[in-house]
C-alpha cells in the first residue's frame, strides 16, 4: 500500500525539522518583525526585551541583592528574585508535620465526620454509645496514615539532602574552595572536574581542552548518553585560565529570564568595555555531567529552581485514582442515606412517644421534654448509632492494601534488571489499582523504546549484499558464528559481524570496490579522535557516524587522526595521509555529506554519503549496479535498518580550481551564506559513481515489539511523543511494530486539512454543531496512523497563531477583536476547544500516533488533551528531564531507571529499567491490584451495611429510641478485629488467574478499562445485599426468640442473649461470605477466616466473664451472657439457619453466573490447569533463535535524521590548536563515545 510522505520543504505549513517554541516563552521571543499574518510588524512603541531584566555580575554576590532585583514575597517582606541553589521537594519539617498532616487528613470528609461524631458522643443527652467506640478507630486511622506520610517524606528529605550536599569548588576570597551545592549563588565562579555533575546553569568560561571545548553528557536531560560539546568564548578562553585571572573577572551578563527552553539561550556579556554575544553553545545545563574534560571554569547564571531542568519539571500534581474519586462520591451517598434514615427514625420516635411513650408509666424518665425535642435528640442519637455505615476503617485498610501491593512490585524478580542491578520501584503507594485501568500510554523514544545504540549490520557493494551468516567460501548459513576480528590490531572487540566471506574478500584485496567502500567510510565523516592509553576514542556527531567509522576500523580501515586540513588512516596495515580540500557537512536540507580529498599520488576525489533519495538524483548515467543496490535498499528497509548510499567522483585539477574560487566567494557572502554554499556544493555533487550502501540497526530495547503487541491486544493505545526528527521517529515506529504495512499514515498537513473542513462545516451548518453524535474522520475498516510534528501541532491547536496575534495586538496597543471566520482563526474559546476535541477524536481513531519534534511542554499538553476530552486513564513513560512534565501530567508516571539520568525517575510514580517491564506492571500487577481493590471495596461496603442495618430493624421494636442491637464492645471491635483480616488478605493476595495466564490473555485487562468491577451499580448491589443479610440476621433470631423455652425451662429471649445470637450469626456470615469471594486460597487466608471467628469467641467470652465485670462494672455489663446463651442447642440451630439462608442465594447466583453467563476470566479460570500445562510445554520447547527482523516496506533514511556534524569545528581548526604546556588529557579509556547535536 502506498503511503504519502509529508514533506515540509516547499510547503506553506510549519517546518517539520524545527522544534517549536514552548508555552513558557515570553512574547518577545517570537520574531518581532513578523505579525500574525507573516508580514512586517506595524510601527508602534518599542517593546522592552525581557533580556534586560536578568543581570548577573561575576564574583559579586551582593549585586543580586540590590533593591531593583527585590520582589515581594509575603505581605510587605521582600526577597531577591534570584533563587538559591538549594532545592526542596519535601512537604513537612519538624514543626509543620503534625499540624499540616492533620489538616490534610481532615480534608477527607470521612475523617472530619468521625471527629464531629466524637464530639457528639461526649454530649450526655445525645450519646448512645461510649466515646471510645469512635476514638479508637479514628486514632488508629490517623496514626497509620501519618506514619506512612512521614516515611514518604523522609525519603524526599534524604534525596534533597544528597543533592544539596554534593561538593563543588567555588571561587571565594581569591581562591577555589570546596563548597556544597546549596551554598552556590548566582554570580559565583565554579571549577568543575571530569565526571562532575553540573550544579547549576553555567556560562562556560574556559576549560583544559583546546579553545575551551567542554564535553557534557545529557543523560539526566534527555536520556541520551551521547556526548555534546560546549565551547567558551574566545576572549574568556584567552584571559581566564589561572586562578588569579578568575578572581579578577568582573564581567556582567545580561540575558533572558529563566525559562524551560532546553534548546535556546540568548544573552550578552559586558566586559572590558566590549560586548560579546552568548548562545546555547556557551551554556552548561544543570543535571548534565562533564566528560572527557579535565578542568573547566564557569559562571553561575541560573541557580536552583530557576535552572532549565527544574523549570521543565512542571507543577507537582496530586494524583488520585478513579476508584478514590468514586469511593468519595459513594461516601457522600452513604451520608445522604444516613441522614434520611436518621431523619425517618427521628420522626418515628416523635410519633411513637406521643402515642405510646408518654402514656407508659414505666418509661417515664422524669424529664419534661416534648415529643419533637425527643425526636430531635433521637436524630443525633441515630447518627451515632448508625455511624458505621460510613466506614472509618475503610481508608486505613485501603492504605495497607496499597502499601502491600507496592511492596509486591518492588519484590518482583521478573522486573529486576540484572545488568544494571536495578529492581522495579513503586515510588508511590496510592495509585496501584489505577495501573489496571490504563487506556492510553504516552512514551518517549530515545532511551525508552530504543537503547540509542547503533550497530553496523549489513551492506551492499557493487550489487552484492553482505551481512547474513556466510562462510569464508561464500556459502549462506542458517546460523553463523561472529567473525573473529582479533587479527586486526585496532578492532573494537564489542563489534559483531556474521559474514566471513566479506572479511575474506577484504584480506585478499582482489575486489577494489570493497576496499574503496571501507576507505570511504574511514575518510568521509566528521568524527574526532583521541588516543588514550593505547585506545582510540571516537567522538562522533551522532551514534550513526560512530557506528560507520567503527565498522571500517574493524575491517582494516582505521581512522587515526585529523588536523584542520589533513586526515590520516591505516589502510590494511599501511598508514596514509590525505589532504582535505573541502568538507561539505550534513544538514536537514542536503541530507548528505561529502569530503573532497587530495590523494598522496595527486589525484583529487570526492567521497559522498547520504540518503538514497538525494544520492540517486546525482548519480552519473554510467554508474553501475543502481538497480541491484535499489533492491538491496528495499530489503534493508523491510528490516527497518537505517540506510545510507555511498558514491565517489574523480575531479580534475582545473575543475577543482574553478570550483574553489566559487566556494571562497560563497563562504564570505554577507547575506544568505548558507544558501550560497548549498548552491556551490550542488555544482560538485553531481555525476557521481555509486559504490554501495550501508545498513545500520537502531537497537530497540529487548522485547519492545512484543510488549507493544501485547498491550495493543489489551486495548491499550500507545502514542510516541519525541523530540526526534520525523523520519527517525517513523523508522522506530516500524521497528517496534507500532506502525505496520497495512496502516494508512496521515501527516500534519492532511490532519490540518481534515480538521479545517470539519470546522468549516460546523460554521456553515449550525445544526451539525448542535449534534452530540460525531461522524468519524476515517471511513472503512482500514487501520490508520497519525504522524505529526510539533510545528503542525501548534498550527492545528492554534497555539502559534494565538501567540503571534497577542504579540501584534500588544504592539499596536489594541485589544483582541473577533476573528474573520475565513482566516482559519478560532472565533472564540469554544471553537478552539472544539478544534482540540476534533484533533483528539481523530487521533483516537488511529491505531498509532507519533508526535515528533515536540517540546516538553507540548508532550504534557497532548496528555492533558486526551485526559480532558476522553476522560481516559493515561500513563506516561520516559527517561529524561524532557519527559518530566509529561510524567507529572499523566495519571500514572513511569520513569526508566538504570541509566545515569535519574530526573524522570525522581518525578515518577513507578520506575524500572526496561520498557518491556511495563507489560508485567500493567497486565499482572495493575490488573491484580484493580481486581483486589474492587473486591475489597464491594465486600467492605457489604459487611458494614449488613452490620449497621440490624440497628435499623431493631428500632421498629424499641420505640425508635436509639437503642443499639449489639453490645458496645462488639460495635467497637467489629471492623478492627472480627472482620478486617480476611478481607485485608483478599485485597493483598487474591488473584483470579496466575501471572502467566494474565500475560497470555491480555483481554482479561479490559474490565478495568471499562470500570465494570466497581461502580455505582456494584455499590448498590452491595447495599441491597447488605440490606438482605441484615434482614435475615435480625428477623430469623427475632422469630426464634418469640415464645420459646430453653432446655433449663428458662426463656432465652432476653435482649442480651438476642444481641449475642445476632452478633454470632453476623460474624459467621461475613467471614464465610469472603470465603465464597476468595479466588486464590493460601494457608494465610484460611487461617484469617478461622482465626477471625476464633478471636470473636475468645474476646466475647472474656468480656462476658465475671472477673472483668468486677474490675470495670460500668464498661462490661453482659456478665455471663455468652456462656448462658451459647450452651442452648436451640440457639446454635438458629445461628446455623440464619447463616445458611444468608449465604444460599449468593451461592446460587455465583453458580448461575459462572455456568450460564461466564466472563472471559471465568472461562480462563475454568481451563486454568490446561492453559498452565500448555505454558509449561511452550517453555520447554523454547530455543534461542537467530537474529531476525520483521518484514517492512519502509525506506529507513538515516540521512534524513542526521544532524549537522563537526565540519565547522574541524575547518576552523579550533579543536586542534594546543595551548603550550597546560593541557592534561583525560584518563578514561573509552572505545567509542558517539555524540549527537548540540542541545
TrEMBL record:
Residues 1-58, 810-829, 1171-1196, 1211-1239 are annotated as: Disordered. Gene3D superfamilies: Calcium-transporting ATPase, cytoplasmic domain N (3.40.1110.10), Calcium-transporting ATPase, cytoplasmic transduction domain A (2.70.150.10), HAD superfamily/HAD-like (3.40.50.1000). GO terms for cellular component: plasma membrane; trans-Golgi network. Residues 71-135 form the P-type ATPase N-terminal domain. It is found in: Endomembrane system; Membrane. SUPFAM superfamilies: Calcium ATPase, transduction domain A, Calcium ATPase, transmembrane domain M, HAD-like, Metal cation-transporting ATPase, ATP-binding domain N. ATP binds at residues 444-446, 545, 586, 609, 642, 722-724, 853, 859, 882-883. Residues 164-230 form the P-type ATPase A domain. Residues 905-1158 form the P-type ATPase C-terminal domain. Residues 815-825 have a biased composition (Low complexity). The chain crosses the membrane at residues 106-123, 129-151, 329-352, 379-398, 936-957, 969-989, 1019-1040, 1080-1099, 1132-1153. Belongs to the cation transport ATPase (P-type) (TC 3.A.3) family. Type IV subfamily. This is Phospholipid-transporting ATPase. The lineage of its organism: Eukaryota, Metazoa, Chordata, Craniata, Vertebrata.
Amino acid at each position: 500500500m502506498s503511503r504519502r510522505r509529508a514533506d515540509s520543504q516547499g510547503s506553506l505549513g510549519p517546518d517539520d525539522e524545527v522544534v517549536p517554541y514552548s508555552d513558557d516563552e515570553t512574547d518577545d521571543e517570537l520574531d518581532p518583525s513578523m505579525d500574525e499574518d507573516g508580514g512586517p510588524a506595524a510601527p508602534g512603541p518599542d517593546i522592552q526585551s525581557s533580556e534586560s531584566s536578568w543581570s548577573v555580575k561575576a564574583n559579586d554576590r551582593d549585586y543580586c541583592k540590590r533593591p531593583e532585583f527585590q520582589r515581594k514575597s509575603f505581605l510587605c517582606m521582600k526577597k531577591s528574585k534570584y533563587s538559591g541553589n538549594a532545592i526542596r521537594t519535601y512537604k513537612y519539617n519538624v514543626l509543620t508535620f503534625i499540624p499540616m498532616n492533620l489538616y490534610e487528613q481532615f480534608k477527607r470528609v470521612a475523617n472530619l465526620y468521625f471527629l464531629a461524631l466524637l464530639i457528639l458522643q461526649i454530649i450526655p443527652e445525645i450519646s448512645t454509645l461510649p466515646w471510645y467506640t469512635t476514638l479508637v478507630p479514628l486514632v488508629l486511622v490517623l496514626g497509620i496514615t501519618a506514619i506512612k506520610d512521614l516515611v514518604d517524606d523522609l525519603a524526599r528529605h534524604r534525596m534533597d539532602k544528597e543533592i544539596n550536599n554534593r561538593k563543588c569548588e567555588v571561587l571565594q576570597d581569591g581562591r577555589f574552595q570546596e563548597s556544597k551545592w546549596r551554598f552556590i549563588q548566582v554570580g559565583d565562579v565554579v571549577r568543575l572536574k571530569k565526571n562532575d555533575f553540573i550544579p547549576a546553569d553555567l556560562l562556560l568560561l574556559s576549560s583544559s581542552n583546546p579553545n575551551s571545548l567542554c564535553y557534557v553528557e545529557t543523560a539526566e536531560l534527555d536520556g541520551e548518553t551521547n556526548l555534546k560539546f560546549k565551547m567558551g568564548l574566545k576572549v574568556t578562553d584567552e584571559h581566564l585560565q589561572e586562578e588569579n585571572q578568575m578572581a579578577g573577572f568582573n564581567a556582567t551578563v545580561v540575558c533572558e529570564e529563566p525559562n524551560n527552553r532546553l534548546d535556546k539561550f540568548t544573552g550578552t556579556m559586558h566586559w572590558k568595555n566590549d560586548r560579546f554575544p552568548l548562545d546555547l553553545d556557551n551554556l552548561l545545563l544543570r543535571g548534565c555531567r562533564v566528560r572527557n574534560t579535565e578542568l573547566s571554569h564557569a559562571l553561575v547564571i541560573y541557580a536552583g529552581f530557576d535552572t532549565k531542568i527544574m523549570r521543565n519539571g512542571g507543577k507537582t500534581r496530586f494524583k488520585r485514582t478513579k476508584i478514590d474519586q468514586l469511593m468519595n462520591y459513594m461516601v457522600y451517598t452513604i451520608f445522604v442515606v444516613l441522614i434520611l434514615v436518621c431523619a425517618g427514625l427521628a420522626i418515628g420516635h416523635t410519633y411513637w412517644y406521643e402515642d405510646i411513650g408518654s402514656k407508659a408509666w414505666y418509661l417515664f424518665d422524669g424529664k419534661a421534654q416534648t415529643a419533637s425535642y425527643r425526636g430531635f435528640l433521637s436524630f443525633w442519637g441515630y447518627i451515632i448509632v448508625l455511624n458505621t455505615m460510613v466506614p472509618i476503617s475503610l481508608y486505613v485498610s485501603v492504605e495497607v492494601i496499597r502499601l502491600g501491593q507496592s511492596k509486591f512490585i518492588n519484590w518482583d524478580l521478573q522486573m529486576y534488571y540484572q545488568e544494571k542491578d536495578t529492581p522495579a520501584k513503586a515510588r508511590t503507594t496510592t495509585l496501584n489499582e489505577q495501573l489496571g485501568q490504563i487506556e492510553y500510554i504516552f512514551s518517549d523514544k530515545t532511551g525508552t523504546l530504543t537503547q540509542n545504540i547503533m550497530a553496523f549490520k549489513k551492506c551492499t557493494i557493487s550489487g552484492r549484499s553482505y551481512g547474513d551468516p556466510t562462510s569464508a567460501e561464500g556459502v549462506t548459513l542458517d546460523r553463523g558464528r561472529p567473525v573473529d576480528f582479533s587479527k586486526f590490531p585496532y578492532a573494537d572487540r564489542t563489534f559483531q559481524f556474521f559474514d566471513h566471506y566479506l572479511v575474506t574478500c577484504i584480506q585478499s584485496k582482489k575486489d577494489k570496490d570493497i576496499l574503496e567502500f571501507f576507505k570511504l567510510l574511514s575518510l568521509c565523516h566528521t568524527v574526532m579522535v583521541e588516543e588514550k592509553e593505547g585506545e582510540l576514542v571516537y567522538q562522533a556527531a551522532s551514534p550513526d557516524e560512530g557506528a560507520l567509522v567503527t565498522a571500517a576500523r574493524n575491517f582494516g580501515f582505521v581512522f587515526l587522526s585529523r588536523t584542520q586540513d589533513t586526515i590520516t588512516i591505516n589502510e590494511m596495515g599501511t598508514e596514509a595521509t590525505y589532504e582535505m580540500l573541502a568538507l561539505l557537512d550534513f544538514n536537514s536540507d542536503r541530507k548528505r555529506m561529502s569530503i573532497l580529498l587530495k590523494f598522496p599520488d595527486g589525484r583529487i576525489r570526492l567521497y559522498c554519503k547520504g540518503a538514497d533519495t538525494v544520492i540517486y538524483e546525482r548519480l552519473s548515467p554510467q554508474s553501475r549496479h543502481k538497480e541491484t543496490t535499489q533492491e538491496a535498499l528495499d530489503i534493508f528497509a523491510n528490516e527497518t535498518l537505517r540506510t545510507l548510499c555511498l558514491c565517489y567522483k574523480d575531479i580534475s585539477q582545473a575543475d577543482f580550481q574553478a570550483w574553489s574560487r566559487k566556494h571562497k566567494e560563497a563562504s564570505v557572502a554577507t547575506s544568505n551564506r548558507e544558501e550560497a554554499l548549498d548552491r556551490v556544493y550542488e555544482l560538485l555533487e553531481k555525476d557521481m559513481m555509486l559504490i554501495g550502501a550501508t545498513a545500520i540497526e537502531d537497537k530497540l530495547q529487548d522485547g519492545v515489539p512484543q510488549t507493544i503487541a501485547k498491550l495493543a491486544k489489551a486495548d491499550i493505545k500507545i502514542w510516541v511523543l519525541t523530540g526526534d526528527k520525523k523520519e527517525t521517529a517513523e523508522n522506530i515506529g516500524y521497528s517496534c511494530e507500532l506502525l505496520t504495512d497495512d496502516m494508512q499514515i496521515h501527516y500534519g498537513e492532511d490532519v490540518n486539512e481534515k480538521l479545517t473542513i470539519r470546522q468549516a462545516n460546523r460554521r456553515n451548518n449550525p445544526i451539525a454543531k448542535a449534534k452530540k453524535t460525531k461522524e468519524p474522520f476515517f471511513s472503512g475498516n482500514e487501520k490508520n496512523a497519525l504522524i505529526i510534528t510539533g510545528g503542525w501541532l501548534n498550527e492545528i491547536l492554534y497555539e502559534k497563531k494565538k501567540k503571534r496575534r497577542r504579540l501584534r495586538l500588544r504592539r499596536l496597543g489594541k485589544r483582541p477583536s473577533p476573528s474573520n471566520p475565513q482566516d482559519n482563526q478560532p472565533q472564540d474559546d469554544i471553537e478552539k476547544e472544539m478544534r482540540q476535541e476534533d484533533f483528539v477524536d481523530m487521533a483516537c481513531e488511529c491505531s498509532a500516533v507519533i508526535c515528533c519534534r515536540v517540546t516538553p511542554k507540548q508532550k504534557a499538553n497532548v496528555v492533558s488533551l486526551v485526559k480532558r476530552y476522553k476522560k481516559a486513564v493515561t500513563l506516561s513513560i520516559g527517561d529524561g528531564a524532557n519527559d518530566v512534565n509529561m510524567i507529572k501530567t499523566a495519571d500514572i508516571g513511569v520513569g526508566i531507571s538504570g541509566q545515569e539520568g535519574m530526573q524522570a525517575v525522581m518525578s515518577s510514580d513507578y520506575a524500572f529499567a526496561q520498557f518491556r517491564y511495563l507489560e508485567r506492571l500493567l497486565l499482572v500487577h495493575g490488573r491484580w491490584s484493580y481486581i483486589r481493590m474492587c473486591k475489597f471495596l464491594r465486600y467492605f461496603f457489604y459487611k458494614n451495611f449488613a452490620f449497621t442495618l440490624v440497628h435499623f430493624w431493631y428500632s421498629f421494636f424499641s420505640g425508635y429510641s436509639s437503642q443499639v442491637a449489639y453490645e458496645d464492645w462488639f460495635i467497637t471491635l467489629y471492623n478492627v478485629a472480627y472482620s478486617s483480616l480476611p478481607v485485608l488478605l483478599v485485597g493483598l493476595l487474591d488473584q483470579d488467574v496466575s501471572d502467566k495466564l494474565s500475560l497470555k490473555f491480555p483481554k482479561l485487562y479490559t474490565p478495568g478499562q471499562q470500570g465494570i468491577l466497581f461502580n455505582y451499580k456494584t455499590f448498590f448491589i452491595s447495599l441491597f445485599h447488605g440490606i438482605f443479610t441484615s434482614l435475615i440476621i435480625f428477623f430469623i433470631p427475632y422469630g426464634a426468640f418469640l415464645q420459646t423455652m430453653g432446655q433449663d425451662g428458662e426463656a432465652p429471649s432476653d435482649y442480651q442473649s438476642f444481641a449475642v445470637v445476632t452478633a454470632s450469626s453476623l460474624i459467621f456470615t461475613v467471614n464465610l461470605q469472603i470465603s465464597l469471594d476468595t479466588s486464590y486460597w493460601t494457608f494465610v487466608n484460611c487461617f484469617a477466616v478461622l482465626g477471625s471467628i476464633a478471636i470473636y469467641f475468645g474476646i466475647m467470652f472474656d468480656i462476658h466473664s465475671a472477673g472483668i465485670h468486677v474490675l470495670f462494672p460500668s464498661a462490661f455489663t453482659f456478665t455471663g451472657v455468652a456462656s448462658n446463651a451459647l450452651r442452648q442447642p436451640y440457639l446454635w440451630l438458629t445461628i446455623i439457619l440464619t447463616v445458611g439462608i444468608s449465604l444460599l442465594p449468593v451461592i446460587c447466583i455465583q453458580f448461575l453466573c459462572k455456568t450460564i453467563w461466564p466472563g472471559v476470566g471465568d472461562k480462563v479460570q475454568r481451563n486454568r490447569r490446561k492453559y498452565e500445562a500448555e505454558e509449561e510445554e511452550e517453555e520447554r520447547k523454547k530455543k534461542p533463535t537467530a537474529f531476525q527482523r520483521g518484514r517492512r516496506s519502509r525506506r529507513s533514511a538515516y540521512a534524513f535524521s542526521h544532524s549537522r556534524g563537526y565540519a565547522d569545528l574541524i575547518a576552523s581548526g579550533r579543536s586542534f590548536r594546543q595551548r603550550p604546556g597546560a593541557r592534561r588529557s583525560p584518563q578514561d579509556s573509552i572505545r567509542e563515545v558517539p555524540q549527537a547535536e548540540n542541545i
